[in-house]
Amino acid sequence: MRDVPWWVGAAIGCAVAGALLPTVGYRLAVPYGEPPRQDCSGCGVPLRPGVVGWFAGRCVRGHRLGVPRWVTTALAGLAGALLAAALGAVAVLPLLLALAVLGVLLGVVDVACHRLPDPLVLPALAATPPLLGLVALGTGQWDDWVRGLLACLTVGAAFTGLVLLPGGGFGFGDAKVGALLGWYLGWLGWDAVLLGVALPWVVNAPVLLVLLAVRRVRWRTKLPFGPALLAGALLAVLATAR
């Protein structure tokens, strides 16, 4: 076991958490203002009550709820492995791993219904300042905390401006997620922030071209931007890791 890279543990932990996400994503992938799903869209049977109903993976009649479990497991595990291998055993890593798992869930929901739900984003946004504050308290990285705050406000304001542009295809959910990611990218450095803002468009471009080539979308089709935001942030961290 001594020869096993330490970041394998981070990958396994994120993969296990990712395996729990499909049904959560299925239940939260509803139009704005509607409550979480209470029944199976395949057969109409009410979902299991309590915690089991949020993580079971299948309804009582065996219909799968949400994306295949291997998808979220693989995405979360890969993100965890890449972050841990790139950053090393830094104090902020557990928060970044938790953010990676949340990002997989947000991406699943956004692809399903073009929404980044407030019940997922706002608690994470509210919890970030005190959690990063605890890291700063233990490490003395108060400059990083302040930079994270400034990046959060800057990115959030910039993306809110894009929301207000007519025909921009941005939503307030994108702006909130941008602000959340700005906190963590800002903690890592302004170079990570700049890349995190620029890379989502680079990520989205080939996806759009492929979808156009296979005639799944048209030029005016609005793609969910959340997955590109999240992927761009991950790539920014990997590109700027010291």
Automatic annotation (TrEMBL):
InterPro entries (alphabetical): Prepilin_peptidase/N-MTase (IPR050882)
| Swiss-Prot/TrEMBL keywords | Membrane, Methyltransferase, Transferase, Transmembrane, Transmembrane helix
Query: GO CC annotation: what is one?
Result: plasma membrane
- What residue ranges are annotated as transmembrane? 6-29, 75-108, 120-137, 149-172, 192-214, 223-241
Query: What's the superkingdom here?
Result: Bacteria
Task: List GO molecular-function terms, semicolon-separated.
Answer: aspartic-type endopeptidase activity; methyltransferase activity
Transferase as a keyword of this entry, yes or no, is yes
Q: Which residues form a coiled coil?
A: none
Q: Name one GO biological process term.
A: methylation
This chain's protein is named Leader peptidase (Prepilin peptidase) / N-methyltransferase
From which source organism is this entry? Micromonospora echinospora
